[in-house]
Amino acid sequence: MNYFITAIGTDSGKSLFSAIICEALEADYWKPIQAGYPRDTDFVGGLISNLKTDLIPEKYVLDTPASPHYAAEIDKVKLKVENFDIPITDNENLIIEGAGGVLVPINDKEFVIDFPQKWGIPVILVSNLYLGSINHTLLTINELKRRGLAVKGIVFNGPSNPASEEIILKQSGYPCLLRIAEEKEINHAVVRKYAAELRNNL
Predict the structure, then answer these.
(1) What's the rounded Cα separation, in Å, for the pair 119 and 4?
(2) For the segment 49-87, what is each residue's pLDDT rounded down to a tens digit?
(3) Model confidence at 180, in pLDDT bands (50, 70, 90)?
Protein backbone atom coordinates (compact mmCIF):
# COMPACT_ATOMS: atom_id res chain seq x y z
CA MET A 1 0.00 0.00 0.00
CA ASN A 2 1.20 3.52 -0.77
CA TYR A 3 0.48 6.40 1.61
CA PHE A 4 1.24 10.10 1.24
CA ILE A 5 2.12 11.80 4.53
CA THR A 6 1.15 15.45 4.74
CA ALA A 7 0.53 17.91 7.57
CA ILE A 8 -1.08 21.14 8.62
CA GLY A 9 2.27 22.93 8.37
CA THR A 10 6.04 22.72 8.64
CA ASP A 11 7.54 20.91 11.65
CA SER A 12 4.26 19.17 12.43
CA GLY A 13 5.90 15.76 12.81
CA LYS A 14 5.66 14.26 9.30
CA SER A 15 9.13 12.75 9.40
CA LEU A 16 8.66 11.22 12.83
CA PHE A 17 5.37 9.69 11.79
CA SER A 18 6.93 8.54 8.52
CA ALA A 19 9.53 6.63 10.52
CA ILE A 20 6.80 5.11 12.69
CA ILE A 21 4.65 3.95 9.78
CA CYS A 22 7.69 2.66 7.89
CA GLU A 23 8.56 0.61 10.97
CA ALA A 24 4.97 -0.59 11.34
CA LEU A 25 4.67 -1.75 7.72
CA GLU A 26 8.35 -2.40 7.00
CA ALA A 27 7.68 0.01 4.14
CA ASP A 28 10.10 1.80 1.84
CA TYR A 29 10.43 5.57 2.27
CA TRP A 30 10.65 8.36 -0.30
CA LYS A 31 10.71 12.13 0.01
CA PRO A 32 10.37 13.50 -3.54
CA ILE A 33 11.63 17.01 -2.72
CA GLN A 34 14.03 17.97 0.06
CA ALA A 35 14.53 21.70 0.56
CA GLY A 36 17.47 22.41 2.87
CA TYR A 37 19.43 20.32 5.32
CA PRO A 38 19.53 18.08 7.32
CA ARG A 39 17.75 15.63 5.02
CA ASP A 40 14.53 14.10 6.32
CA THR A 41 15.58 10.83 4.69
CA ASP A 42 18.55 10.65 7.07
CA PHE A 43 16.30 11.41 10.05
CA VAL A 44 13.83 8.67 9.11
CA GLY A 45 16.59 6.17 8.38
CA GLY A 46 18.17 6.81 11.76
CA LEU A 47 14.97 5.79 13.56
CA ILE A 48 14.14 2.58 11.70
CA SER A 49 15.09 -0.80 13.16
CA ASN A 50 13.69 -3.25 10.61
CA LEU A 51 15.88 -4.61 7.84
CA LYS A 52 13.31 -4.45 5.04
CA THR A 53 12.83 -0.68 4.68
CA ASP A 54 14.78 0.94 1.83
CA LEU A 55 15.37 4.68 1.70
CA ILE A 56 14.77 5.83 -1.86
CA PRO A 57 16.85 8.85 -2.90
CA GLU A 58 15.01 12.13 -3.36
CA LYS A 59 14.32 13.29 -6.89
CA TYR A 60 15.48 16.77 -5.92
CA VAL A 61 17.62 17.97 -3.02
CA LEU A 62 17.52 21.76 -2.94
CA ASP A 63 20.03 23.80 -0.98
CA THR A 64 17.77 26.42 0.58
CA PRO A 65 15.49 25.65 3.58
CA ALA A 66 12.45 27.36 2.07
CA SER A 67 9.28 26.67 0.13
CA PRO A 68 10.17 24.29 -2.72
CA HIS A 69 9.10 26.76 -5.39
CA TYR A 70 11.53 29.37 -4.05
CA ALA A 71 14.33 26.92 -3.25
CA ALA A 72 14.05 25.55 -6.78
CA GLU A 73 14.21 29.05 -8.24
CA ILE A 74 17.46 29.71 -6.35
CA ASP A 75 18.93 26.41 -7.61
CA LYS A 76 17.63 27.12 -11.12
CA VAL A 77 15.50 23.98 -11.12
CA LYS A 78 11.98 23.67 -12.57
CA LEU A 79 9.65 21.50 -10.50
CA LYS A 80 6.56 20.08 -12.20
CA VAL A 81 4.20 17.43 -10.86
CA GLU A 82 4.12 15.70 -14.25
CA ASN A 83 7.85 14.95 -13.94
CA PHE A 84 7.40 12.91 -10.75
CA ASP A 85 6.45 9.24 -10.79
CA ILE A 86 6.13 6.85 -7.87
CA PRO A 87 9.31 4.75 -7.66
CA ILE A 88 8.96 1.07 -8.46
CA THR A 89 10.33 -1.13 -5.68
CA ASP A 90 10.09 -4.73 -4.56
CA ASN A 91 8.30 -3.63 -1.40
CA GLU A 92 4.50 -3.68 -1.48
CA ASN A 93 4.40 -0.70 0.91
CA LEU A 94 5.76 2.77 0.17
CA ILE A 95 5.56 5.85 2.38
CA ILE A 96 5.89 9.17 0.56
CA GLU A 97 6.51 12.28 2.65
CA GLY A 98 5.48 15.66 1.37
CA ALA A 99 7.12 19.02 2.08
CA GLY A 100 5.43 21.28 4.62
CA GLY A 101 1.65 21.54 4.44
CA VAL A 102 -0.79 20.70 1.66
CA LEU A 103 -0.68 24.08 -0.09
CA VAL A 104 3.08 24.52 -0.11
CA PRO A 105 3.81 25.53 -3.71
CA ILE A 106 6.27 23.68 -5.91
CA ASN A 107 5.86 26.21 -8.73
CA ASP A 108 3.53 29.08 -9.62
CA LYS A 109 0.56 26.79 -10.24
CA GLU A 110 1.07 23.48 -8.44
CA PHE A 111 1.16 22.44 -4.81
CA VAL A 112 2.45 19.54 -2.73
CA ILE A 113 -1.05 18.09 -2.49
CA ASP A 114 -1.12 17.71 -6.28
CA PHE A 115 1.21 14.70 -5.91
CA PRO A 116 -1.20 12.29 -4.19
CA GLN A 117 -4.01 13.64 -6.35
CA LYS A 118 -2.06 12.76 -9.51
CA TRP A 119 -1.05 9.36 -8.17
CA GLY A 120 -4.45 8.48 -6.69
CA ILE A 121 -3.07 7.39 -3.33
CA PRO A 122 -4.54 7.95 0.14
CA VAL A 123 -3.32 10.68 2.46
CA ILE A 124 -2.51 10.56 6.16
CA LEU A 125 -2.72 13.96 7.85
CA VAL A 126 -0.44 14.88 10.75
CA SER A 127 -1.78 17.59 13.05
CA ASN A 128 0.41 18.99 15.79
CA LEU A 129 -1.59 20.48 18.65
CA TYR A 130 -1.10 24.14 19.55
CA LEU A 131 -3.24 27.24 19.98
CA GLY A 132 -4.78 27.76 16.56
CA SER A 133 -4.29 24.22 15.31
CA ILE A 134 -8.03 23.54 15.12
CA ASN A 135 -8.41 26.22 12.49
CA HIS A 136 -5.31 25.13 10.57
CA THR A 137 -6.35 21.47 10.68
CA LEU A 138 -9.93 22.07 9.57
CA LEU A 139 -8.79 24.35 6.74
CA THR A 140 -6.45 21.59 5.58
CA ILE A 141 -9.23 19.03 5.82
CA ASN A 142 -11.55 21.25 3.81
CA GLU A 143 -8.98 21.40 1.02
CA LEU A 144 -8.49 17.63 1.06
CA LYS A 145 -12.26 17.14 0.83
CA ARG A 146 -12.64 19.78 -1.88
CA ARG A 147 -10.15 17.87 -3.99
CA GLY A 148 -11.85 14.54 -3.30
CA LEU A 149 -8.73 12.94 -1.90
CA ALA A 150 -8.96 9.69 0.05
CA VAL A 151 -7.82 10.24 3.63
CA LYS A 152 -6.84 7.21 5.72
CA GLY A 153 -6.95 9.19 8.96
CA ILE A 154 -5.39 11.77 11.25
CA VAL A 155 -2.33 11.56 13.49
CA PHE A 156 -2.12 13.92 16.46
CA ASN A 157 1.36 14.92 17.54
CA GLY A 158 2.34 16.62 20.80
CA PRO A 159 0.81 17.16 24.25
CA SER A 160 -2.72 15.78 24.38
CA ASN A 161 -5.60 18.21 23.96
CA PRO A 162 -8.83 16.16 24.05
CA ALA A 163 -11.08 19.13 23.30
CA SER A 164 -9.14 20.01 20.14
CA GLU A 165 -8.89 16.40 19.03
CA GLU A 166 -12.59 15.76 19.57
CA ILE A 167 -13.81 18.70 17.50
CA ILE A 168 -11.35 17.96 14.69
CA LEU A 169 -12.41 14.32 14.48
CA LYS A 170 -16.11 15.23 14.69
CA GLN A 171 -15.91 17.85 11.96
CA SER A 172 -13.69 15.80 9.67
CA GLY A 173 -15.29 12.39 10.04
CA TYR A 174 -11.80 10.88 9.79
CA PRO A 175 -10.50 8.31 12.29
CA CYS A 176 -7.57 8.97 14.58
CA LEU A 177 -4.79 6.55 13.59
CA LEU A 178 -2.31 7.48 16.31
CA ARG A 179 -1.55 9.92 19.09
CA ILE A 180 2.14 10.73 19.50
CA ALA A 181 2.92 12.18 22.91
CA GLU A 182 5.64 14.71 23.67
CA GLU A 183 8.56 12.34 24.23
CA LYS A 184 11.72 13.28 26.14
CA GLU A 185 13.77 11.42 23.57
CA ILE A 186 13.01 10.04 20.12
CA ASN A 187 14.83 6.76 19.56
CA HIS A 188 14.40 3.27 18.11
CA ALA A 189 12.45 2.02 21.11
CA VAL A 190 9.97 4.91 20.97
CA VAL A 191 9.42 4.41 17.25
CA ARG A 192 8.88 0.67 17.72
CA LYS A 193 6.38 1.37 20.51
CA TYR A 194 4.25 3.64 18.34
CA ALA A 195 4.67 1.32 15.32
CA ALA A 196 3.13 -1.55 17.30
CA GLU A 197 0.19 0.68 18.24
CA LEU A 198 -0.27 1.95 14.69
CA ARG A 199 -0.41 -1.54 13.15
CA ASN A 200 -3.75 -2.11 14.86
CA ASN A 201 -5.26 0.98 13.22
CA LEU A 202 -4.17 0.62 9.60
Answers:
(1) 10
(2) 999 999 999 999 999 999 999 999 999 999 999 999 999
(3) very high
CB 16, CB 186: distance < 8 Å: yes
Vertex 50 angle, CA 45 and 52, to 5°: 90
Q: Which domains does the chain have, with CATH numbers?
A: 2-199 (3.40.50.300)
The span from the CA of 16 to the CA of 6, in Å, is 12
Would you tell me how many other CB atoms lie within 10 Å of the CB of residue 94? 22
Residues annotated as catalytic are 31
Q: Which of 86, 146, 154, 150 is nearest to 122 (CA)?
A: 150
Question: What is the distance between the alpha carbons of residues 118 and 192, in angstroms, rounded to a whole number?
Answer: 32
What does the DSSP 8-state code read for residue 109? S
Instruction: Please confirm whether the linkage preceding 38 is cis (ω < 30° from 0).
Output: yes
Rounded to two decimals, the pTM is 0.96
